[in-house]
Structure formats: C-alpha cells, structure tokens
Amino acid sequence: MSRFIRFSLIAAGACLLMMVGTGVVLAAGVATAVATDGLVMVSVHEKTPDGVHFTAPIPASLVGLGLTIAKNADDGSLDEARSQLEPVAPALLVALDQLEDAEDATLIHVVDGDDLVTVQKSGGTLVIDIDSDDARVHVGVPLRLVRQVISSLSS
Amino acid sequence: MKVNQLSKLGAVALVALTTAFGAGAAQAADLWLHVTVHESEENANVAVNLPLTLVETALSMIQVDEIQSGMLQLDDDTELSAQQLRELWQQLQATPDADFVKVDSDDETIRVFKEGNYLMVRGTAKSDKGSEISVRVPAAVVAALLDGADDNQLNIGAALRALAHEGQGELATITDDDAHVRVWIDDRPEGR
C-alpha cells in the first residue's frame, strides 16, 4: 500500500469519525431541544393538482436561535416589532400564563360555508387549523416558545 | 367567658370569610366566557371560549382611541354621559324591582327592568317575527362599569372583574330570523 493511499485512508477515517461524532452530538442536541422546548409544526396542503404539500416540524430551539441571530444582526429589522411589542409584553406574558394554566379547549371555532378555522389549546401548545376551499393549514406552536420570543424581543 | 365566645365567633367568621374569598378567587380563575353565533342562512357558526381572566388581561392590552387601559371613552355627543348614567343608576339601585323603560310600538316592544340583583332588557320585534333580545346583567357589573375615573368613561375592566366575581350565568341572547347569538359564563372550557 502506497504512502498516499494510507494517508488518504487515515484522513478519510478521521473525517468519518469527526462527522459521526458531530452528528451524534447534533442529534443529541436536537433531541434535547425537542424534548425540552417542543416542536413548531407547520403543515400546508394546497388543494390544487400542482399545489404545495409540506409538513415541517421545526425544533423550537431553532426558532430561538434564529431570533438571537436576527437580534445580533442589529439591522433594525426587528425594531418595529419590538416597539409594538414592548408596551403590551408584560400583559402578553400574563395572558400566556393564564392560557397555560387553563384547561385544554377549543378557543375559537369558525365555520363559514365550507371553510373552517379552529384555534385550540392542547397541553402546552396552541394549535391553529384552517381548512378552506383551496388549502389546509395546520400550525402548532408551543406556548413556551411564544413566551421566549416575546421575552427576547421585549428585553 | 363572653370574650372567649366572641373570640371563637370571630375566628369562625374569619375562617368563613377567608373560605368565601378563597372560593370566589378559585371560581373566577376557572370561569370561561362563551360567545356563540349561528347564522342559518349563511351556514356560518362561530364559537369563542376564553378563560375570563384571559379576557381581562387581553382587554388591558387594547390601546386604541376609544379604549385605553380597560376604560371605554364615550363620545362627547352621546345622549347620556357616563356621569349622568352613574347618577341614574344610583337612583335606580335604591328602588325596588320595577320597569324602568317600557316601549310598546307597532314595530317592537322593549322593556328595561330591575329584577333582584339584575338589570334586565327584553325586546321583541313585531315586524320581524322571532326576533328577540334578552340581556341579563348583574347589578354589581353595571355599578363597576359606571365606576370610571373620568366623567365620560366606562370601566370595562372593573365590569369584567365584577362579572368574574358574580360567577356563572346567561348574559345575553339575541335571536332574529336567521341568526342566534348567545353570551354566557360557566366553568366549562367548551360551551354547552
């Protein structure tokens, strides 16, 4: 075996080990994040032949990370949201507490012909379902994440 | 001996009061405000079920010209100012159960009256068969609503707190030929 091949095999092995190691660490990190912060579920199904169909479970920690990056970028893009949120943030946090403490329930249920909109509180998650003529949308947001976003933006 | 008996009585009264207030607070926290709207012609239904405490908190977040910090600012050109309503209500509270307003026209009958601790409104439209309105508001809620700091303000926040203290009950039903609206409070998360 030539020195070049041996060196290549050792380098490939090292890379493989690093990748596997990083993957395990990342997977563990994501799993921990999902377990602690939950998932934001977004599902969109357009009712047309070439419509969009996707379901995206997004770890809540990624949303928090995105927010941190946006805040650190400091390009003023969050200024408007922050200024609107600031005066009502304390009351919003209280409202979130009250919602979390409340029993699970359908908070809003609207039927208009064939269109249906529901907002439910299920455990620690706010679930929004929209079923209309052209699309079906499902969004599930952990209340804890909403709290994190409000706290982060208003701080 | 008498002092001892009085102390015991006082302790019992204190426990009873504490229990009553404790029960009241727990009840208020568990109450839900329900609003349902059924429109048969449009095949539309709306149901809103919200914890009463959440409604109160949400109200404090509304900051528009007419509503600030749970206070509704009445227009200056309203027929009756909040102050006049306040004075009127003070006089009405002192009276026994009676009809305050009774309108019987070709089109409608409207009756505003006091029944026990409730201000009641009943209305029927003669021209529009089946159209009815029924409102039942606890007197304490009316008093709280009129407890505005300003001459022309209504205190919606205080009214909601009073409503929570009053507990469960029907507040309003409005029915016409194709729609039915119902507003009530109970301790169930989902309306019945």
Oligomer: heterodimer
| DSSP helical segment count of chain A | 5
**Beta-strand percent range of chain A:** 25-35%
Distance between the termini of chain A: 62 Å
Largest sheet of chain A: 6 strands, antiparallel
Helix content of chain A: 40-55%
- What percent strand of chain B? 35-45%
Q: Estimate nothing, just give the exact number of structural domains of chain A.
A: 2
Count of DSSP-assigned helices of chain B: 5
How is the secondary structure organized here?
The complex is a heterodimer of chains A (155) and B (192).
Chain A: H1 3-37, E1 39-46, E2 53-59, H2 60-73, H3 79-85, H4 89-101, E3 105-112, E4 115-122, E5 125-131, E6 135-142, H5 143-154
Antiparallel strand pairs in A: 1-2, 1-6, 3-4, 4-5, 5-6
Helix pairs in contact in A: 2-5, 4-5
Chain B: H1 2-30, E1 32-39, E2 44-51, H2 52-61, E3 67-68, E4 71-73, H3 82-94, E5 99-104, E6 108-115, E7 118-125, E8 132-138, H4 139-145, E9 153-155, H5 156-166, E10 169-175, E11 179-186
Antiparallel strand pairs in B: 1-2, 1-11, 3-4, 4-9, 5-6, 6-7, 7-8, 8-10, 10-11
Helix pairs in contact in B: 1-5, 2-5, 4-5
Describe this protein with a few key phrases.
heterodimer; A: 155 residues; globular; disordered N terminus; B: 192 residues; alpha+beta; 2 domains; three-stranded antiparallel sheet; 5 helices
What's a concise summary of this model?
The complex is a heterodimer of chains A (155) and B (192). Chain A is α+β, with helices and mostly antiparallel strands and 155 residues long.
